[in-house]
Design brief:
With about 325 residues, the chain is an all-beta fold. It has two domains: about 160 residues, Leucine-rich repeat, LRR (right-handed beta-alpha superhelix) (Alpha-Beta Horseshoe), CATH 3.80.10.10; about 150 residues, Ribonuclease Inhibitor (Leucine-rich repeat, LRR (right-handed beta-alpha superhelix), Alpha-Beta Horseshoe). The protein contains no helices and 13 strands. The chain has a 13-stranded parallel beta sheet, with no helix packed on it. The termini are far apart.
């Protein structure tokens, strides 16, 4: 009996079948299949074209398929697919253009695809996509302009994309984006002015972006921003005055910003700020008096600020 004759099969779990080299062509006949798990199938080099016939497939998990070099064009035919997980597919060099046809896709995880250099322009057609994870894609140099078309995108994770030099201007069009993670993007030198258009953005993480020298003035337009993490941005020399416009900001982390010499007076306008971390800001010489206006302020961290000579008088209040 062929596996393709299992007409009622909804779940096929082949995780850790480390010697599995290929799937049978008949797998495309599994009309009821909703979940296909192929995690840690480390001998699997390709998926057959017939996989595109799985009209009911909602979840396709290919994590740690380290020898998988490409996906078939037919993957774009998976009209019900909601989740595509390709984490640690370290031999995967490109994503087929047909991926843009996956109208139901909500989650695309490509973490640690270390050979992936670019995303197809067609990715902008993924109208249902909510989460795009590209952490540790160390060869990824840029994002396509079309990424701005992802109107449902809520989370964009680009941590440890060490070759990423810039973000496209179109990123400002991501009207639903709530979380933008850019930690350890060592080659990122600046943020586009359009970032100020991200009206839903709540969390912006830039930890250890060691080449980032300044923030755009437009950052003050992020009216929903609650957390701004600039920890270990060792080239950051100043904050824009517009930072005082961040009325929702609760946490500002500037730990180990060793080139930061002062804070703008406007920081006193951050009416929701609860936590300010300035530990090991080695060049910081003084705090602005306006910091005493922070009515919601709960925690001020100043460990290792070796050039700080005095605290403003408000501190006693």
């Amino acid at each position: 009996m062929s596996i393709g004759q299992l007409n009622a099969l909804q779940n096929l779990d082949l995780n850790y079948c480390s010697n599995l080299q290929e799937l049978p062509t008949s797998i495309g006949q599994l009309n009821a299949l909703q979940n296909l798990d192929l995690n840690y199938c480390q001998s699997l080099q390709e998926l057959l074209t017939s996989i595109g016939q799985l009209n009911a497939l909602q979840n396709l998990n290919l994590n740690y398929c380290s020898n998988l070099q490409e996906l078939p064009t037919s993957i774009g035919q998976l009209s019900a697919l909601q989740n595509l997980h390709l984490n640690y597919c370290s031999s995967l060099q490109e994503i087929p253009t047909s991926i843009g046809q996956l109208n139901a896709l909500q989650n695309l995880h490509l973490n640690c695809c270390s050979m992936l250099q670019k995303l197809p322009t067609s990715i902008g057609q993924l109208s249902a996509l909510q989460n795009l994870h590209l952490n540790h894609c160390s060869m990824l140099q840029k994002l396509p302009t079309s990424i701005g078309q992802l109107s449902a995108l809520q989370n964009l994770h680009l941590n440890h994309c060490s070759s990423l030099q810039e973000l496209p201007t179109s990123i400002g069009q991501l009207s639903a984006l709530q979380n933008l993670h850019l930690n350890n993007c060592f080659s990122l030198q600046e943020l586009p002015t359009s970032i100020g258009q991200l009206s839903a953005l709540q969390n912006l993480h830039l930890y250890n972006c060691s080449m980032l020298q300044k923030l755009p003035t437009s950052i003050g337009q992020l009216s929903a921003l609650q957390n701004l993490d600039l920890n270990d941005c060792s080239s950051l020399q100043e904050l824009p005055t517009s930072i005082g416009q961040l009325n929702a900001l609760q946490n500002l982390d500037l730990k180990c910003c060793s080139m930061l010499q002062k804070l703008p007076t406007s920081i006193g306008q951050l009416s929701a700020l609860q936590n300010l971390n300035l530990n090991y800001c080695l060049s910081l010489q003084e705090l602005p008096t306006s910091i005493g206006q922070l009515s919601a302020f709960q925690n001020l961290h100043l460990w290792g600020c070796s050039k700080l000579q005095e605290l403003p008088t408000f501190i006693g209040q």
